[in-house]
Amino acid sequence: MNDPVIVSPNIWNDVDIYELENRGVDPDGAMWSAMQMIADHTGARVLDVGCGSGYQLPILGARAASVIGVEPHPPLVQRARERLASVDAPHVEVRKGTAQNLPVADASIDVVHARWAYFSGPAASPGSPS
Prior knowledge:
about 130 residues, four-stranded parallel β-sheet
């Protein structure tokens, strides 16, 4: 992968922190209810950009026809794949890639989920403000 990414300070060096953040953000599922009302993903082909450790993949996969998680950071890709191996979700997969060069075919996705994916953009060039 040649696409540079901005290092996410919350998880790049300690992927376990991402798990804690995800558990603490929406303990009652209010966000998921709101998301279903805004963009119902039942039976849809879903893309999770910056899927991190794959925390949301089983949740998305419970209703979607298929889910692809895309993540640039190898330790998080591995964690997401391990998560999927522990659940029954053959229609959910993780691909290594970046937000600016998604490893999916054009027009192959119905709904895009990008929670906290602002770290997956291109890195600042040397000398520019970050």
